[in-house]
Amino acid sequence: MAEFSVRVSTGDAIGAGTWNKIAVSIVGTRGETPPLRLDHPGKEFSAGTVEDFQVESPQDVGPVLLLRVHKAPLLLSAPVGAVARDAWFCRWIQLSQPRGAPLRFPCYQWLEGAESLALRAGAAKVSWADDHPILRQQRQEELQARQDSYHWKTYSPGWPRCLDEKSVKDLDLNIKYSVKKNSCFYLKVGSAFTELKLKGLLDRKGLWKSLNEMRMMLNFRMTPAAEYVVKHWQEDAFFASQFLNGLNPVLIRRCRHLPENFPVTDDMVAPMLGPGTSLQAELERGSLFLVDHGILSSVHTNVVNGKPQFSAAPMTLLYQRPGGGPLLPLAIQLSQSPGPDSPIFLPSDNKWDWLLAKTWVRNAEFSVHEAVTHLLHAHLLPEVFTMATLRQLPQCHPLFKLLIPHTRYTLHINTLARELLIAPGQVVDRSTGIGVRGFSELIQRNMQQLSYSVLCLPEDIRARGVEDIPNYYYRDDGLKIWGAVESFVSEIIHIYYPSDTAVQDDPELQAWVREIFSEGFLGRKSSGVPSALETREALVQYVTMVIFNSSAKHYAVSAGQFDSCIWMPNLPPTMQLPPPTSKGQTRPEGFLATLPPVNATCDIIIALWLLSQEPGDRRPLGTYPDEHFTEEAPRRSIAAFQNRLAQISREIRERNQGLELPYTYLDPPLIENSVSI
């Protein structure tokens, strides 16, 4: 007989406790015990408890390799129902042996119904470090079970592939919103719909009567940033600044040569450039920047409230005056085809002509941001990273331990989006100018040109030539966070991979990379996305890219949606009249008639309000309450990472004190670890 002490930690979430029977089997090098019931007088396994049990093994199993956890209904005859499925969230189990140090077995999983689960001791192991056949077999069985649970499907041709589930109701508990998060989400939905319904706006299909009437929306919810937008939305400096620090700060690039299809002349821009310079001189100096929404050319347009909608593919030229001052727009062309019917609009034009041109650009920003920057880059690709992590990396793998916090709830929110946002007849179809079909076209087009460098912030900044443009806080804060993540990842990688050969010889790592390449980037070699990794340096960059895009990048392009859209003319989701083909024709009533109808405005504002804020149950970047790593070295690296993020936050908040409009969309305590809303 060998006696063991077993300590069990149950999660503290709503419903985490169980009435079911829990037993453990201890697997060693010389055999396996029968299931040993964990039982003592009174109720066991209540939410938030840590409990101790004594068990006796009838045999000596040798050095411990695994711990099998068994969960079974309390009543053997219980029907398939609530009692039989009674779920339990196990945080960890600690086994104290007669000899040797205690072994901690991380779990952090839900067990439903009658279920058994094999747990490994906490030390992270790459596959080549497993020297016992039982451990190697356990890795294979765990991955096979996950691959049987999480299947790929093609949601739309040309899109990254995704989880094959139709509804969040079908998701298993380990990838589903917690009860708390789910309740908060639907309470927010209900309160928003009720408020706008009572105001009589949600069902009103007509035009806004005036800009002043739109102020009714400001009583809905307000933030300091939204108040700033309302006050400054017509100003050229604010219009330009949104390309740097708004919800889509990833398109602006330095312009060294004007595109042939954007024939701006010296005479057009002389009033803005001032004396003693020219367009060519400013191009050579590097003070001109371009935002090109050409991806929208000939995109499918939608029908809203029975009326055809319109879209434009504008080009915007911007000027950064040497010696400081704000970035300013110089010229806007609303199509990719210059000519008599596609004039170039200028700041010197009639006030309403110029305002309408800028509003068309903001509508283009809405379409490209929501379909490409937000949906594709910040949701669909992180879903691919999540799926590959679950399917190709066992729980004991150091990369699984590193990445799993950055996958939390991603499959739930994306499945919900396919149900409620981008399904036919839902929000995108009801209330945007290009609809689901237009979104799909933009995603397909971007997938054909998407490159690895776009996903790696330092390379993206260099490729767009925006290393030194002033007041670009997305760049400044993003590079600091990228650096902190990269340093953290590098430390973890160097703990578990002693050489480049160790990277090459890890079949699970290579399968993970290969699956992301084939299922996410559809095997397109021209993307530059690797299908295999050969060095530790390449692995560090790749994992940094995954974590950054699943956390900081998502927050940067998501959190500002409501701030930007609550004053709808700043970010119109659709346009009801075609782009102007001549100057001097725009009047206030024509400007209003071009803007979205009342019900579409409300529909989008509710959606973006929900998508801009986490509905409870948050885990900020670098917060790891689930202790997957148990060794001292990675835990020191986690602490150093958290300290660096805290320092970055202090620097951001100190800078923001001097800004009229603080940039908060990359403040680490506000960033979620994962794509979860």
Topology:
Blueprint: E1 2-10, E2 21-28, E3 31-32, E4 36-37, E5 50-57, E6 64-72, H1 82-85, E7 88-96, E8 103-111, E9 115-120, H2 133-149, E10 152-153, E11 162-163, H3 179-198, H4 224-232, H5 236-245, E12 253-254, H6 266-273, H7 279-285, E13 288-292, E14 303-304, E15 307-308, E16 315-320, E17 327-333, E18 344-345, H8 351-392, H9 398-403, H10 410-420, H11 427-431, H12 435-449, H13 452-455, H14 457-464, H15 473-496, H16 500-504, H17 507-520, H18 536-550, H19 552-558, H20 561-565, H21 588-594, H22 598-612, H23 632-656
Point out poorly predicted stretches: 77-84
Radius of gyration: 28 Å
Overall pLDDT score: 95
The helix fraction, in percent, is 40-55%
Largest sheet: 5 strands, antiparallel
Question: First CA to last CA: what distance?
Answer: 52 Å
Number of helix segments?
23
| Beta-strand percent range | 5-15%
The computed structural class is alpha+beta
Overall geometric form: elongated
The strand count comes to 18
Description of the structure:
With 677 residues, the protein is α+β, with helices and mostly antiparallel strands. 42% of the residues lie in helices and 14% in strands. The protein is built from 23 helices and 18 strands. The strands form 5 sheets. Strands 2, 3, 4, 6 and 9 form a 5-stranded antiparallel β-sheet that branches. Strands 12-13-16-17-18 form a 5-stranded antiparallel β-sheet, with helices on both faces. Strands 5-1-7-8 form a 4-stranded antiparallel β-sheet, with no helix packed on it. A hairpin with an 8-residue loop joins strand 10 and strand 11. Helix 15 runs antiparallel to helix 23 (632-656). The longest helix has 42 residues, at 351-392. The model is unreliable at 77-84 (pLDDT under 50).
